[in-house]
Amino acid sequence: MKNRLIGIFCLLALLLASSGCVADEEPATRPTSQEILGIYLHDAAVYAADVGKDAALAEFGRLDGEFTSGSWYVYAYDTECNLLAHPYEPQSVGLDRLGWTDSRGMPVIRIARDVAAAGGGYIVYLYPEPVDGVIDEAAVETYKPKLGYVLPAGDGWWIGSGVALENSDGTYPPAIQEMIELVHGGVSYAQAQGKVAAIAELSDLNGQFVDSDGHYLYAYLYDGTLIGHPYLPEKIGSNLINREDQYGMRMIAALAETAEDGGGFVVFIWPNPDEGNRDELKIGYVMPVDDEWWLGSGVYLSEVTGEYTRLTV
Predict the structure, then answer these.
(1) Domains of the chain in sequence order
(2) pLDDT at 62 (0 to 100)
(3) Which residues contact 280 (CB under 8 A, 6 or more apart)?
(4) pLDDT tens for residues 35-63?
(5) pLDDT of amino acid 273
(6) CA–CA separation, 74 and 57 (whole Å)
(7) Cβ atoms of 79 and 97 closer than 8 Å
(8) What's phi and psi for 307, nearest 5 deg?
């Protein structure tokens, strides 16, 4: 085990198993993967400051480096979004990745660059895990939600890393798991009760599909027409397929396409009404009801991390 990863993986073992580096440590005091990720990347930033940019980039880019082990690795970009280091994608080093998007169209690199410029913090995105020392970005079916963390590393460049949001048992953090179950429950209800009854129920602020935390279901036709929503009754009947965020992502189109493909996750930016409608990263989950319409729900990244991620300086 590499020296700089011993402490990180010891903490990770405490999270994933009932035994660890401190035998009598109480479960409530064990760090989460979120906390481990922050420790890991802050350590990388300190390392970069200690050894300098060139030495740090060389180390971050090594498959056998101090910061690389399995799905744990550090990547680096300059502020123009040119890739500077990545242990699993050496062939892409030097490329301009400003326009790169994840499998559902989110401009991950631009957003991460802006979060780092604003001081750093958590992000969320879809990306494959490395397999046999390779990350295949062309294999869109392998993209899964990842919790990321980014930090400025020095003048003109920044670093990032990420961990899978899915736990080893196939579950997700509570807020995300509850969202998934809400969507599946809504689909089952719609298929059993029919479209009219389901839309009426999910559009009811006092209905079973609006929980105490304000989470809810929404319903769309595949062409982007909103047909059910408990908080936006004035938008019912509107076609929102061309709605874009500040980065140009057409989030409703991405959600509809994902539902039509069988369902899954989409990450996008959406205003948070509980926080003065500030723009936040949101993790969406959608499922088809039938070949005419689909259901979705979402949770803000801040609900998962407990921290607000600034998207701009």
Answers:
(1) 3-164 (3.30.450.20), 174-305 (3.30.450.20)
(2) 96
(3) 269, 270, 271, 272, 300, 301, 302, 308, 309, 311
(4) 889 999 999 999 999 999 999 999 999 99
(5) 87
(6) 9
(7) no
(8) -130, 145
Question: How would you classify the pairing of strands 226-228 and 278-288?
Answer: unpaired
Token pair, residue 62, equals 């090594």
Reported as type and span, the H/E element at residue 202 is: helix 195-202
Residue type, 88: Y
- Give CB contacts under 8 A, 24+ apart, made by 303-306: 303/175, 304/34, 304/124, 304/147, 304/165, 304/173, 304/175, 304/176, 305/34, 305/122, 305/147
Longest dimension (CA), the chain: 64
CA distances in angstroms from 309 to 109, 245, 257, 282, listed in the order given:
15, 16, 27, 11
What stretches in the chain show pLDDT beneath 70?
A: 1-31, 313
User: Cα 304 to the chain's mean position, in Å?
Assistant: 10
Statement: the pTM of the whole predicted model exceeds 0.85: yes
Spatial CA neighbour of 1 closest among 98, 72, 91, 55: 72
Residues paired with 298 in a beta bridge:
284
Q: Are 109 and 80 in contact (CB under 8 A)?
A: no
* pLDDT score, position 18: 44
